[in-house]
Amino acid sequence: MDDAGAYLMDDGTVMLQSADFFTPVVDDPYDFGWISAVNSFSDIYAMGGTPRTALNLMGWPSTGLDNSILVDILKGSAAAIRESGALPMGGHTIKSPELFFGLSVTGFVEKKNLKLNNTGKEGDILVLTKPLGTGALTTALKQGMVEENSLGVVIANMKHLNKNAAEAAVKANANAVTDVTGFGLLGHLHEMLIETELSAIINYDKVPFLDGAVNLIEKGAVPGGTKANRAHCSKFTIFGEKLSEAEKFSVCDPQTSGGLLIAVNEKNLPDLLKLLEGEPTAAVIGSLKKDNSNTITVSRD
User: Fold this and answer.
1) pLDDT tens for each residue of 1-58
2) How far apart are the C-alpha atoms of 21 and 257, rounded to whole Å?
3) What's the first-to-final CA gap in the chain, in angstroms?
4) Neighbours of 60 (CB within 10 A)
5) Cα–Cα–Cα angle for 152, 154, 160, nearest 5°?
6) What is the pLDDT of residues 46-88, one digit of tens each?
7) Coil, strand or helix: which one is 54?
8) Helix or strand or coil: residue 3?
9) With a threshold of 0.85, does the pTM exceed it?
10) Mind listing the domains of the chain with CATH numbers?
11) Quick one: CA dihedral 43, 44, 45, 51, positive or negative?
12) CA 256, CA 131: separation in Å to the nearest integer?
């Protein structure tokens, strides 16, 4: 259930590999290329690694799109790759009925710094480094409920690399890390619990959201992925009675280029929060407990 493949090399270094791509979530091709590249790097960062090389992966329709769009997507990707410190190594394009774009990324990490997603400990505190809501807001954009020029903060969050958050998790000796993407907060948190003796408690009022996200969910901006996530999460989630239906959907919202979810010992929490200064958020949203049920309880105080 980990975020990337890990290969132990002869010198003790771990090579990490992952790939991700998706269809456009914004109209601007440069921003789409940047966001998709940043999203692809997150699997490497979630395991404590440093991206070193990246291959562009693109599906391009035979007709209907000007080649300048392709160029702008690749320019956006190149900007994100430069910011990460990795090197672009070409890639591959195929004909596709629908445009998609992403990266295959190779990274490295010292074995002692490798982070897995299901190695949390009883009593660990859960910290989230980006607010939720990109699924609802980008769906609202597609439905004409909001204008793209009003989504500056949302786009900035999606373009923000998890590089510093990953370094913070390593330096603060976090016990477990994952990134929050398509399965939403609850789906990825549950992956941290599988094959452990742990369950999680989430304080809904501490969970950060992008402005307007929950309100848009109430108005019907609910992606198909959110509905699928909610159905899946119902198998292992206990929702408090004070939560509305929109609020229950909001913690199942699929994220594009979401933040890291970090499980850290309480004594290391102050160090982690200090190291996360400058990140979109450093929200303490809950904790892990030992009860063998692998459930998640989401409620208000």
Assistant:
1) 899 999 999 999 999 999 999 999 999 999 999 999 999 999 999 999 999 999 999 9
2) 11
3) 31
4) 17
5) 100
6) 999 999 999 999 999 988 899 999 999 999 999 999 999 999 9
7) strand
8) coil
9) yes
10) 1-114 (3.30.1330.10), 115-301 (3.90.650.10)
11) negative
12) 11
